[in-house]
UniProtKB/TrEMBL annotation:
GO biological process: cell redox homeostasis; cellular response to oxidative stress
Keyword vocabulary terms for this entry: Antioxidant, Disulfide bond, Oxidoreductase, Peroxidase, Redox-active center
Ranges where the Thioredoxin domain occurs: 44-215
The name this protein goes by in its record: thioredoxin-dependent peroxiredoxin
Pfam family, one: AhpC-TSA
EC number(s) recorded for this UniProt protein: 1.11.1.24
Source species of the chain: Nocardia colli
Described purpose of this protein according to its UniProt entry: Thiol-specific peroxidase that catalyzes the reduction of hydrogen peroxide and organic hydroperoxides to water and alcohols, respectively. Plays a role in cell protection against oxidative stress by detoxifying peroxides and as sensor of hydrogen peroxide-mediated signaling events.
């Protein structure tokens, strides 16, 4: 039986091609195709200058947006609170995969939620976070950015059944929450990047944030 008749003599080229494919797959696994930026119809546009709001950290110390951007651009992560597993998982990921590079670049990273300072402290300690967690009392900043919303009744019921009374944990006693959002501000508090992640969407990828800072 002739190997040429059945194509056996073509095995080495095919084998070489498979090796090339495996190498290409390995290379792709080390890269990241940037996800689409989500901006809701209510979100502020790029170039919007955020007012010089003041917040408090988990030690009840006053922190202003001007403080945060005093030495360069800053990355602001809006999250819902300690009760949200998805949010706390994303904060841990940013600690591991984003904070080291931001620190090397001299870029501040802060996370912001409407929860009271003791909730922020709980979140930081429980998740071994080293970047500041700030309280946006009454969702004033989130509302200004167009990323605030009220939780729907089903979500509220599910969260309360799990033992979390979100209203009592937020500074104003309301169930108003920010959509998980990543914001990059320059030193003039101008929005360079805004990515609003509505319910069910994964958080902004660390590589996307770094790419925006590099652009």
């Amino acid at each position: 039986m002739s190997s040429g008749r059945y194509g056996y003599d073509r095995l080495p080229p095919i084998r070489d091609r498979l090796v090339e494919i495996d190498e290409a797959i390995a290379e792709l696994s080390q890269t990241h195709i940037r996800s689409a930026v989500i901006v809701t119809e209510n979100s502020v546009p790029l170039g919007y200058t955020v007012p010089a709001f003041a917040m408090v950290d988990d030690a009840c110390q006053r922190v202003t947006l001007d403080d945060i951007v005093a030495h360069g651009p800053a990355v602001l992560i809006f999250y819902r609170g300690a009760w949200s597993q998805r949010c706390t998982e994303s904060l841990r990921r940013y600690e591991r995969e984003l904070l080291p590079e931001l620190s090397r670049r001299g870029v501040n990273l802060v996370a912001i939620s409407p929860q009271l300072p003791d909730g922020s402290q709980y979140t930081r300690v429980l998740n071994n976070l080293t970047f500041p967690l700030l309280t946006d009392a009454g969702n004033v900043i989130a509302r200004t950015l167009g990323i605030a919303h009220f939780a729907d009744p089903k979500t509220m019921d599910a969260i309360e059944l799990a033992g979390y009374a979100v209203g009592s944990r937020n500074s104003d006693g309301e169930w108003e929450l920010p959509h998980p959002t990543t914001l990059i501000l320059d030193q003039q508090r101008s929005v360079r990047f805004i990515d609003v992640r509505i319910e069910g969407l994964p958080p902004t990828h660390p590589k996307d944030i770094l790419a925006e800072l590099h652009s």
